[in-house]
Amino acid sequence: MPGNEFENRFAQIYNDISAYPTLRDVARGLGKSVKTVRNYSALLRRRTEAGRAVPGLIWRGPASDAPAYALKIDAAPELSSADHAHRRASQLANDVSSLLLASRYPVINPEAMVVRSHMVRRYDRALGDYVEVEGSPRTWLTDTLRVAGVDKPAGRTFLFTGAQNDAPVDQDFWRNLNAYAQWLGAEIVVGPWTYETNWWDENNPASRDYDPVLMPHLCFGQMEIGPDFVFCGEMNTLPTAARPISDLTTYSRGRWAVFPHAKLQLLSIPSTDPHTPAHQIMTTGSVTRPMVIPRKAGVKSLFHHVIGATIVEFDEDGTFFCRQLSADENGSFYDLDVLVKAGEISTGHRALAMTAADIHAAKLDRGNCLTTFGFDPKTQARRSDSLLDTVRPEHLLIHDLHDQESRNHHHEDDVSHNFEMAVRGRESVMGEVQRAVDFLLSIKAPETEIIVVESNHDLALERYVREGRYRMDGVNFRVGLTLDAAYHDWRAEVAKALDGNLPAPTFSLLEWTMRFLAGPKLHHVKWVHDGQSLVIDGVQVGAHGFRGANGAKGTVAGYARLGQKMSIGDKHSPAILDGVYVAGVMQLNHGYNKGPSGWSVTHILQYRNGKRALVTLRNGRFRASRPRISLANPCPAV
Questions:
Q1: For domain 157-346, which CATH number applies: 2.40.50, 3.60.21, 3.30.750, 2.40.128?
Q2: Which pTM value belongs to this model?
């Protein structure tokens, strides 16, 4: 707007005291902040004093301070301080209410956001006494903000993400997210958060603005979707929070929950009912670019800021599935075998790596094995739409392949357990190793490199031999002698290497035993021995997760402090923390895990862009059923 035109419009609104009785009203009429109104009125007065031809202004301050050149106005009834305080609170309440109701997900209880006037006592030097003047309105929350729920979500899909006020939208990702939503027939829901201390700034309501493209999708309240899922759009968490959901484990009251936040975190919350799987709480990622104060908390948060979303898809029976959608620098992202790039969707893409849930072959759940790997370990029945068939990873990481349940050191003196093994015909250590061999040979994925990551249960076979327990174990005595000889042949090589100041060779007794049984049939399988490293595209995938730093026990928090991206197993409870992703376990009932359990059947997918996602099996499935399109028919850009 040209300068003269704005001057005239400014003067017209500023001088209309009946329509705009306060500076706040003037600011609203001009679409500016109160501070801008004050500054510009002072500028025009200085120009008037300098003799320049500018529109005249009335004087809105005390009459005794009015300059001679100020325009005269008719006397108007003077508002009291309490009147001004009430007016300010009322106007702020209207602004807040408008924001809460503006999107397609309006808050259904806006009265829970209460704005009250506030009076303060200040010392007046002219009067020599304290007087009451209006203060800034105060905003209170009296109940959880809510939006209309979805009672019957069967067949629906949601893409949840988050956004910060005043921050720019990542246009590439937003374009791709809309394209994917169109392809899926999904709804995009954006959970907002603010960075400033105050939830709302009455002097500049525009400072709580969100990009106009996001406005229809903003969800300021809690959205209940079915009986077991909730999106917590009301949770306004600072983007600099280091552990955004660590203190929210009870907030969802036993339901799966997604919280808007720029940093990815996922926790598995134990269930007290052995027949009810653990539920998960997780964050969304952000659709806006980071914008923080350049101090420690802000600078730290930049590293963990993820442009992304969480997909939640409901099957026809109401079972839902959650996965992370983390964007590359160009805004593209993968979801299982789908690539969304430049506004187009294509399918049939291979994952770079898949870290499977801990196997424990002797206890392997047949249904979970069929869904994950495409075969039933007992009947060898096959299906072609397994997770392995869908993502066709270049590398398949296997953790805790062996269990050693037949002669585990935890049951060394447990007569009843040994009796159970005898009744079930599971006393043979070599027979249990054979089950692990059969498992690997049953995986039909010729384009995939199978990598066994030596784990604590695999090492239990070595411990059985080292402690000489086979000597009092008749059914396993001869096998124990064979394994003992093989193990100590390696120890002899280690001794020679140490005396010769040479690197000691590594060895896995489980690997030796399995190759002894299978011969050349396992030539395609690679082993990562205990203590070795394997990094795939910047992610450490060769650590099981049971060994921590400096000889301590491995923990997720301990690994997070290393600053290395990792995909581990061992914990059986899935998690995401500071770049550490944790897989679950293939069998939820191991006998000893009585009481509350956070275990779940969860796999880690590592995509070709370096991003990862957790895939959790629920009711024998890893995703909701939906029509698929071919690689040759991408959706048009949006």
A1: 3.60.21
A2: 0.86
